[in-house]
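Dear colleagues,

I hope this message finds you well. In preparation for our joint manuscript, I am sending the Coenzyme A biosynthesis bifunctional protein CoaBC (Corynebacterium pelargi) sequence together with its predicted structure, so that both groups work from identical material. I would be grateful if you could confirm receipt.
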Amino acid sequence: METASRNIVVGVAGGIAAYKACHVIRAFKEMGDEVRVVPTQAALEFVGKTTFEALSGNPVSTTVNDAVDQVQHVRIGKEADLIVIAPATADLLARMVQGRADDLLTATLLVATCPVVVAPAMHTEMWEHPATQANVATLRARGIVVLQPAHGRLTGSDTGPGRLLDPEQIVDLALAAAQGSSFDTSLAGTKVLISAGGTQEHIDPVRYIGNHSSGRQGFALAEMAAQRGAEVTMVVANSDALPTPAGATVHKVTSAREMQAAIMEHAPGHDAVIMVAAVADVRPAHPADAKLKKGRDEAALESLALEENPDILRGLVQARERGELDPDLVIAGFAAETGDAEHTALELAKAKLERKGCDLLMLNEVSGNQVFGQQRNRGVLLARDGQQREVPDGSKLEVAGVILEELLRCLERRRTSSQDK
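The corresponding structure tokens are as follows:
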């Protein structure tokens, strides 16, 4: 889906993660956007001016005293459709809160009326310091999107929250913010368990039964939930190529039975479970210990005996009904449907919602390879109370935002219902 070229300002503060800004710049340029890089003077200690100019195709300056006849900070700020700051240091956050205009970047920010997305990067102690957290809260209250940083390796041998998100994450989240996705913290204090990826059922040590799921929608939901303040746990099947959502705890599995065990182990104590993973319906009844050979094991390959996998979504609902899980637990599922000669995909999804007994069901019509492995998604969101919501075509992060709004509605409704009893 083609989009019009945007004027994007990439601000870069002086931190070791400044080199990742180069990948952010290149990603926007490859989308056809016009990019203007505005670094701080400290940023140029880490990445040279020549590099930023070569990648963006535009001149680079750090001061309002350059190109005075053009009044740079006013022109750049007014023309911007989106400003992305990556990395943002603790010092820059503090200067933004104070409304400083002591370099081209901060002066530009005071002029801009477009969405501003800030990707912090600093040591854990600096990120968690009360002053920094107060600055983050102030910026968010002013409508600036301050992303949650990643957890991981920092400068030196330390590990913890404060690592800059991967460039791919920054770009995708920034574009979601530009399209109006909410980044409020309404999920703060909420614990969400999300499954993602596609399970694999081994036929022998080198072959398996699987599907085309990339895990992108599950990871997008986890990313958006984490950015909105949720404590996120993931159970992931075979999606190692995707970056870990900010602060999420990830448990890796391979098969449907492994996923079932992990989901049932971690579901207690959560407020919501979202089953996004594409779980194989069947598995080989007798997987071989050694590779099946053509000719020698022809019969085994031609008549592969299959048996059904557990229905994890239905099992969650039944566990809630038996009192083994919190009665207020919200359970959401996905339906990948193609329709058939007798029923539309929507009719099949409605029947599945009734059969499974979950609170929400997102219908993805997957005929023609419309969803699996793609960057975008769309569908219909069905609720247990009969409500139906069209989810328009958008990035998987944008679709995740719509799903989370409905999830919040379900959480509030179930909690209100419990309080009234």
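For the figure legend, we might mention the following. The chain has two domains: 7-178, 191-420. The mean pLDDT is 92.

With kind regards,
E.M.
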